[in-house]
Amino acid sequence: MIGSSLRRRCALIAWLVAFALLPAGVSEAGWLSNLFKGSSKQDSAQKPAASSKPASKPHVAEKQAAEKPATEKPHPVQAATKCEPAKLRIAVDVGHTKQSDGAMSARNVPEYNFNLNLAQRVVEKLKSEGFAETRLLITEGKARPSLIRRVASANGMKADLFLSIHHDSVPDKFKEKWEFEGKKFEYSDRFSGYSLFVSRDNPYYETSLQFARLIGRELKAKGLKYADQYALPIMGKYRHDLVDKDVGIYRYDHLVVLMTTHMPAVLLEAGSIINRDEEVQMASPERQDMIVSSVTTALKKFCGVEPETATSEKKN
């Protein structure tokens, strides 16, 4: 008991000496608060922005990125404002990976092959049209970890826009068997068309929606139709809210690459490769050119380089 009392007195004396030696500018209340309670969230928010430091490496930041967006975010171009193409940082994400290659086409070609080819063409075209800061994101690894890594990469490069390139399939219950070149594969000719997805949980949802609309309008102007099945009850757990039934934009709120990116984000399903006819079309340079041109023109209109012409179609 006596030893304990003596230790407390010594600690008090040491504390008083330390306090007397503190710089005059230190707040007594603030110092005591930090000492016993730790820094508050408000205090942390007032510290110099971490964006001035090099971004964390993807393998370090990936877990946090998957759980929730960081409190500090870049300030990408907002809706209805102009941007300079040469300085606009665009992340073009290749959907899936070599190790987890997505859906299989009607002729048994991995979706990843389609995604990589189209994304490379998009990046090449954008750079040739003055979007010099466009970057191709190719991710390695299994499905779930790859989602986290691609988000960390996009956030790390402080992209202003994120576009993920995919090709569509259907739930297993819609697939049928067929034979091609002596081998049996699965197909479904029931659905076709492109589709666009955005997340309401993205911190820049309105800008994401604006960017998706610009892409959709260009695709529609070229005579392409969107896949309307996602709004149908028969899709079950794959059903999504259709937020623009003029150009085929759906909400996919909890998709990692749309929800946790710190910039406006859109996922484009360029077409259905499980549909036998559309698979052939999606592999053709002509159809790929239509997609590439649509994305490029949409970005020019987004930046105000080209005027956004009024569409004759009426919004439903």
- Number of domains as seen in the coordinates: 1
**What percentage of residues falls in helices of 4 or more residues?**
25-40%
Continuous helix count: 10
Topology as a string of helices (H) and strands (E): HHHHEHEHEEEEHEEHEHH
- In angstroms, what separates the terminal alpha carbons? 80 Å
CATH topology, anyone? Answer: Aminopeptidase
Spatial extent as radius of gyration: 26 Å
Number of strand segments: 9
Q: Give the low-pLDDT segments.
A: 1-75, 311-316
Strand content: 5-15%
Average pLDDT score: 80
- Widest sheet, order of strands: 2-1-3-9-6-8-7
CATH architectural grouping: 3-Layer(aba) Sandwich
- At the first level of CATH, what is the class? Alpha Beta
Largest sheet: 7 strands, mixed
Written account of the structure:
This protein has helices at residues 2-20, 28-37, 41-45, 58-67, 111-128, 143-156, 205-221, 256-259, 276-282, 285-302; strands at 90-94, 134-137, 161-168, 176-180, 183-187, 195-198, 242-244, 249-251, 265-272. The protein is α/β, with parallel strands linked by helices and 316 residues long. It has one domain (81-302): Aminopeptidase (3-Layer(aba) Sandwich), CATH 3.40.630.40. It is globular. The N and C termini lie far apart (80 Å). Residues 1-75 and 311-316 have low confidence and may be disordered.
